Amino acid sequence: xxxxxxxxxxxxxxxxxxxxxxxxxxxxxxxxxxxxxxxxxxxxxxxxxxxxxxxxxxxxxxxxxxxxxxxxxxxxxxxxxxxxxxxxxxxxxxxxxxxxxxxxxxxxxxxxxxxxxxxxxxxxxxxxxxxxxxxxxxxxxxxxxxxxxxxxxxxxxxxxxxxxxxxxxxxxxxxxxxxxxxxxxxxxxxxxxxxxxxxxxxxxxxxxxxxxxxxxxxxxxxxxxxxxxxxxxxxxxxxxxxxxxxxxxxxxxxxxxxxxxxxxxxxxxxxxx
Amino acid sequence: xxxxxxxxxxxxxxxxxxxxxxxxxxxxxxxxxxxxxxxxxxxxxxxxxxxxxxxxxxxxxxxxxxxxxxxxxxxxxxxxxxxxxxxxxxxxxxxxxxxxxxxxxxxxxxxxxxxxxxxxxxxxxxxxxxxxxxxxxxxxxxxxxxxxxxxxxxxxxxxxxxxxxxxxxxxxxxxxxxxxxxxxxxxxxxxxxxxxxxxxxxxxxxxxxxxxxxxxxxxxxxxxxxxxxxxxxxxxxxxxxxxxxxxxxxxxxxxxxxxxxxxxxxxxxxxxxxxxxxxxxxxxxxxxxxxxx
Lengths: 273, 293
Fold this sequence. Notes:
Oligomer: heterodimer
Helix content of chain A: 40-55%
Number of helices of chain A: 12
Distance between the termini of chain A: 40 Å
Order of helices and strands of chain A: HEHEHEHHEHHHHHHH
Shape of chain A: globular
Structural class of chain B: alpha/beta
Strand content of chain B: 25-35%
């Protein structure tokens, strides 16, 4: 019953057109993408290269002193394979400056600061290049809220937000993303040896199936338990998805007029970025 | 009906830009005429785009206004089906489609079933139509439906009973991704539905769905023509714009209705009785004297 399979060729065709049309609608011809060396940003960049041409996809590696050197090498290999321009911006001085101001923020807040330093560099580059920032958050991350608000969650257009990690992997294989990138364990790389699955306490292969059942198939808890998921796991996922809704919506605007932005002033996104 | 050649205009309208879309319609209608088409069919809301939200009043036009008149006159050599937002004299807004012929407006269909669930918000934006009429054209009696309308099977049945041998379905069917077993999901679903519709009502179905993308919502296209035997006689490549001409062979209609006299065997009086009974139960209406139970 649980069926996460996608047709990667047709899915790539849809996403390429999405990227081409939405970039055009925003009056732009190129995108800026932060390449982490991981599979999501590699797939997003590859789709953009097919949609816009590789020279229109400006790839930024944004390493910090604590980042794994392998991440930078993998990011470079992705850009080289695509034939896309590649730049490296060391965010260490930005983050160090921030630490000077706030003191030791602890591991989680440091991770957030690093994600936001990267966002600042990407949006700055996009303004300089008249480009859009390409989002790379996948559906698993969006649903579980595994991302930094105004950090890696910030973008102008995101081709991957409705694809579970498992499905991004299928797409990566279709797009022939470098093997090393496809095989390594997913990591935010905010501190040494960090992995997503350890942070979340779940395996993507499992949680994607459960999310698909609860969200895409609109199943009830009893159905999920009957499908083999532990009741505590089902409850944890439901609570986590609900508590992270704030990361998936614009800020709350207090309505004190006859027509409030977002509530009863509703327009398609249109021409601006 | 008489043989006719239909041009399927699978396009991506520009959201909110009636003027640009109008010029595009005129240009494509010219091309379709040059290709030998008798009628060119554009998708639902082809003059405005789909995800309008608060743009609805900005793009709305009256049925007897300058935009449709210009299209009708410019395309006087060919019949045109185009989608637009109609504003009536009382300022209701409808998701509507016009059938233009010989320089004039022949018929307007106002969408009857406005999807307001999941990703759809049409019930918030539009008033719904109340009538369904087949109409005469130079090539035979024709019916017009908009997208969700055809998911309610009584609509096609009513058009068939009114004499329609061709039902034109203009649509904005959004993409739902792709599965390895059957490719683009929405294209497959539409194909199944329309094959059944054509066969059950023994008539031609011309389906024109848009392509393109609006704020992340993609449209698959997959426009097609099904004959009254349920055979897909033409299918446009999905996802991209294309114009294709398809000839409808009136003899297939006769053969289908001879082999499967479903139209002949429809029982209007029986249906009327049963619908009347449901109506009394559902809306708590008193029995009418002499009405069947």
